[in-house]
Amino acid sequence: MKIGIILISYFLCFLSINDLKAQSIRIIPQPNELITKNASFTLNSEVSIIASSISNATALTLQKYLQEEFGFQNEIIEAKLANEKAIVFRMKADLPKEGYELIIDDEKLEITASNSTGWFYGVQSLKQLLPQASDVKSNSSSLKIPAVSITDSPRFAWRAFMLDEARYFKGMEQVKMLLDEMALLKMNVFHWHLVDDQGWRIEIKKYPLLTEVGSKRKSTQVGPLKWASPIQSAEPHEGFYTQEQIKEIIKYAQERHITIVPEIEMPGHSSAAIAAYPWLGTVKKEIEVPILFGVGTDVYDVSDPKVYKFLTDVLDEVIALFPSKVIHIGGDEVKYNHWKESDAINAYMKEKNLSTPADLQIFFTNSISRYLNNKGNRMMGWNEIMGHNLHEYQDEGDTESNQRLAEGTIVHFWKGDEELVNQAVSSGYEIVNSLHTNTYLDYDYGSIPLSKAYAFDPIPKNLDAKYHSKVIGTGSQMWGEWIPTNGHMHFLVFPRIAAFAEVGWTETENKNYDAFKIALKKLQKSWEKKGIYYAPDSAVGK
């Protein structure tokens, strides 16, 4: 009896020790399965990296990281030349597209995947298992990696971070920094909001005034009162990306297995374009790039064939630049009063037998969808493109529509109740769920504390299980109105981006907020080293 009690006590103690060890080994986002072992792998310059031709690019990424962080000189070799201890990249065809296995014991370190993306994500997990370079003694020639067995793949295929540079231009250095952090956190879509009322940030060679005029504003609304603020900066703001710069950023993202999805707003949020070419608007009069935030002073005249040609010309250059098959057209916050007051628009609606402004918007949106489809692309837009009534400034009758949104459209859900999600998925559309009350990074920590960001589930609670697969992922949106400096942006993005990464990757049953906060400490140390001015624990809420 006593022996039995002793054995049980020993077993429980063993479990407790292993459980504590498992808790101390944390990766963000948390893997599907992580098993700890009572061993470690010794890494030094003598350890070879074994890779084939198809895994060589990822092996080079790891080799460069180990050299820069720890000064190791690990040679990449073929399997037949391997020594006993090595880091091995293996192929396993039946693993999921973005899945990987990471097996570490005292004799080997294996990263197994079916493709380069899986290997890359295996390396990102390995990085988080390694100590911080600052914690390693300068004279140390080796380090210990805890032995683990990880089997992992993402919950959602679409795991996005959005940066709005139309309001404040941030530039290549900041974008590359964000891409680096996204890659470490296994986020795979950089949603780039490049045009809006307050600025046009992408060079379009056929229409040079878009950047010569539309990328500049003479002042900017600022101040603690935000939307109601009467305060102006009295300082000009400008900036845009040349097509060559965009190509460089796209390449940088591709190396990190991130797809850049450009957003070219239409038919609303178009004041910067209209300031450059006044004939694009409904009024056909000169305007300035707005210095106030909010919805702009005019919208595109979609009845004018020249305007449609302009938009398709812009899309042609965008498609030629961006490898992404998905093109985001915005479609949100179109103030219908601009169309209602236009004689040309009213005549066009009568000609096309369109009864309401919502009919017109869906009719226009579908024409853009057909154009993109013919180019081999797919349209995405905020959920107003379905004709949803989301705003108090629209008349109720204006948002009624008998038009059906083009098949194959990705609906980017940002506002409205769960019934609107049900309408979209039951009608056959895939959605990305970016509900603003949970995912908008311009909201302060009082509105979306870190815990609320972490708790978000892209699949609504009451959504029928048969539609769950229609929710392809989620996005976190850094809208730019109130981030005039890089530090403002850092404070709002970090650490919530890590929470959203786990929302997109980790199965709900494997999430644990307390464990996440412990793992966050290591990320915070790396952010400090990189000059990322994240919000301190005292600011992010409970």
Automatic annotation (TrEMBL):
Pfam family, one: Glyco_hydro_20
Top EC class, one word: hydrolase
Alphabetical keyword list: Glycosidase, Hydrolase
EC number: 3.2.1.52
GO cellular component: membrane
Top-level taxonomic group: Bacteria
InterPro entries: Beta_hexosaminidase_sua/sub (IPR025705), GH (IPR017853), Glyco_hydro_20_cat (IPR015883), Hex-like_dom2 (IPR029018), HEX_bac_N (IPR015882)
Coiled coil start-end: none
Domain Glycoside hydrolase family 20 catalytic as annotated: residue spans: 156-507
BP GO terms, sorted: carbohydrate metabolic process; glycosaminoglycan metabolic process
Domain Beta-hexosaminidase bacterial type N-terminal: 25-152
This protein's record includes keyword Secreted: no
Family statement: Belongs to the glycosyl hydrolase 20 family.
Protein name: beta-N-acetylhexosaminidase
